[in-house]
Amino acid sequence: MSHIEGLFDIVKSNVTKNIHRNVYPAIAPTRPELSQAGKTILITGGGANLGLAIAQAFVHAVADTVIIVGRRLDILEEARSHLEEEANVAGTGTKIIAHACDVTDRAQVDALWTELIEHLDIVVDVFVANAAKPAQPKTILEAGELGGAFAVWAATKEAAFLHGRFVWASRDVEELVTRETRRHVDEDPYFFRSTIAPLKSGEWA
Fold this sequence. Notes:
single chain; alpha/beta; Rossmann fold; 7 helices; 4 strands; 39% helix
């Protein structure tokens, strides 16, 4: 079995008994224990799709400021307007900042941080690295409201044991905390971590 085949076997395995497709109470952004009040959130690729859903979830979690970053300013401005309306309807008072930046360009990334830190005096509390160039058209990351709500939960103390780990948003977080999966996380430093394995002879493309 190749490394890629093994990865998809893990995706399909029952790490938790319950697999979710929609937001559920434990990760609901409006749950008081998950409040992001007073925090500043920066989301790359935050203008559309999963990134926008993550931004929406942090708005509903009462984040103080949500910064969305992406390459196209027109898309970001449209998203900013939508998020401001969400914040207004929800009554959270969340400030929305849209900033054009290609995260593959080191100079633009440096300019972004200079702008935030030196000119706007902003300290980022939660950084969501959502921008990516997938190698395949299919994705193993869940999009939509579920992914957004999971991102909020992942930014809290409840998820501290998973920080630096890779886990699918559809997995039931209450089971991750209480089942044997938690024991594996605590005992195995490589469990739920991305690693690089050398190719064996004959596996070169």
